[in-house]
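Customer ticket, subject: "Can you confirm the structure for Ascorbate-specific PTS system EIIC component?"

Message body: Hello, I'm evaluating your service for our small team and ran a test protein. I'd like someone to confirm that this is what the system normally returns, since I don't have a reference to compare against.
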Amino acid sequence: MGFLTNVLEFLKDILSEPALLIGLIAFIGLVALRKPFHKVLTGTLGPILGYIMLSAGASFIVANLEPLGAMIEKGFHIQGVVPNNEAVVATAQKMLGVETMSILLLGLILNIVIARFTKYKYVFLTGHHSFFMACLLSAVLGASGLSGALLVMIGGFILGAWSAISPAIGQKYTLKVTDGDDIAMGHFGSIGYYLSAWVGKFVGSPKDSTEKINIPEQWSFLRNTTLSTALTMCVIYLIAAIAAGSEFVSTLSDGVSPYLFAIMSALKFAIGVTIVYNGVRMILADLIPSFQGIATRIIPNAVPAVDCAVFFPYAQTAVIIGFICSFAGGIIGMLILGFAGGVLIIPGLVPHFFCGATAGVYGNATGGRKGAMLGSFVNGLALTFLPALLLPVLGDLGFANSTFGDVDFALIGILLGQAGNLFTTAGIYAIVFLLVLILIIPNFIKTKTVTINHVDEDTNM
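Agent reply: Thanks for trying us out. I re-ran your input and got the following:
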């Protein structure tokens, strides 16, 4: 029994590590294409190293956002709950470690089975988000009265089903973002991005793209994404540092001059974004060609669903616009909660950067500059109100003052939590039955293409 547990733990570690999961998929695809050994080796290592680079950049961004968040809380006297996926996951692992691990493994397997035998041809490659969702499912389903094998089977099915369905919901928008590149959104903030794209349709035109903003020649250096990001963030960091006061900032700066510390943190943030961009390029350079092996030999027409940061290079100006407007939406949402007497959800800079930036990219794809601004602003509101609604559900489960930050987690947690509270296990079974219908019905009706919402190259739809 101990050996089996160790094996399951080892498999969980591999499958919850996105770099290794992407490398494994690339390896399988290259072997299926019968590539020579040296191409299998380089084609496998490329996505792994690219994702490690992306993760390093993301960690650098997070590390330099933390002092900014502290300065904003101090300078503007804000106290409340900061949505944090990792905090909830850490608590869930202590309480439901075996259940979470089992749901994760079953969910990943069922995602592949669903991609093979239904019209939902999306293989979800963002392993850490699958792990986060497995934690949420184990906690909410356990509180609804499920336990043991039944909890694992239902949780694994919901994870596998949503991993295939969520990329399909907005693939028509993803194709606009990527200009037809064969990738999909594999991130559980997806509903927020699709909402941003939907809003963008009504407020602007993709012809007015953020990437076409006219910049006078003397300001042409701002087209360099690293420089423009650095300058924008310097302004934001300095405002936060001045508001917080030099005495407080000194407690964060480890002896460095407070305002120099703010500037250096802003510059490091910009470098983190650049590292992310370079990591994405490495991933896509090898992953998409190798995935052809999966798509042609193992799962016909398969599409890789990848992390949200992979979409940043498609509209780099929209990334910064999306972050700023999403954060503004978070502040407005927090003020509304305050006036309504609810728990304050403090805008977390990490979800507002990664999710807000992606929402900006999606909003820009359908509505240009106005779409990027208003779409990401709406996403920012969602990142405030949905975690606030999820908080009571998680509080009842023992996760006091903790809540998930991304939209899909909140929506699924609220839906399952309310179904369990109102109808006990019958409500959960009803949701499972609905997901089964969503997966099966398209197989018996005529759709435009084999892959739902996927581009038809012949008709350019």
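A couple of notes from the result: The first strand starts at residue 122 and ends at 124. The chain is about 75% helix and 0% strand. Feel free to reply with more questions.
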